[in-house]
Amino acid sequence: MKIGRLFSEKTVFSFEVFPPKSTASADSVYHTLEAIHRLTPDFISVTYGAGGSGGALTAQIAEAVKSRYHTESVAHLPCMYLSKDEVLQLISEFKQKGIENILVLRGDAVPGMPPKDDFRYASDAIPFIKAHGDFHIIGACYPEGHRESENMVADIRNLKRKVDAGADHLISQLFFDNRYFYTFLERARKAGVNVPVQAGIMPVINKKQIERMTELCGATLPKKFVKMMERFAHQPEAMRDAGIAYAVNQITDLVAQGVDGIHLYTMNQPYVAQKIKEAVQTLII
Ligand code: FAD
User: Residues lining ligand 1, CB < 6 A?
Assistant: First the structure.
């Protein structure tokens, strides 16, 4: 099923999982899927580990999400290190496996690895993929601006290009202060970005994870969030529970403000996904 139609029916709630680094340890992600599919998300997306696992593993897991766990799936597809032929091979594999939804990305530069020339931006890959298959296409967006972009105006101009190129819906980068999301959304709508936008929420599991993620994506850490991390830095369970409460507060506010959907970066942590889903269950029907 293409997931686009869900947005006219409800506040969409989805999960993201990542494949393990090697095919050999792929089983660990099935443990996560076994638990989280019971929480009846609208879809589960599977990242594409640019650092090693590659598209075949993503396709294999996204297929299992559908066939074994009876949940709609989204396969991520970062394109900057792929040629047109490689993208064609992958999307043909997606089709064979019944995958109908793709999150098309540029991907992040790997130091020392020159990109291929075929797709410079996600907006180059989207029309190419659309021309070769009947997929629901998703793009990424950045409430605080993409870290390489000059400023927010340029980033939103490029986002509009991505939507004009054929992105049917967007999922945002994680953020810890909803005000960034609301300001971004207002500006994007004014610029003519009229597709559904899901807010990406990442619960804190430990201080190290957040430091690594924010280093990667540059999300601002609000004062109260930093205080929470400092207060519970040496109490793993308290940190986990405070992180769950923080994420639930963010989601409650977003849903109250009429957000199109929530995309939870589960970090392959079923307990955290379960606690959050239970807490917001009545809000998202
Ligand atoms: P683009 O949309 O191509 O934008 C990249 C930069 O180029 C931006 O600064 C933009 O403003 C600028 N730009 C875009 N178009 C133009 C243009 N025409 N002219 C000039 N400048 C332009 N990475 C992975 O490797 N695997 C994953 O599975 C993965 N999943 C993700 C899921 C989500 C929800 C998000 C938000 C990100 C994910 N990423 C993933 C990370 C993503 O690959 C990086 O953030 C990457 O740096 C940008 O990808 P993009 O598709 O948003 O890039």
Answer: 47-48, 50, 76, 78, 103, 105-108, 121-123, 140, 146, 148-149, 155, 158, 161-162, 171, 173, 200
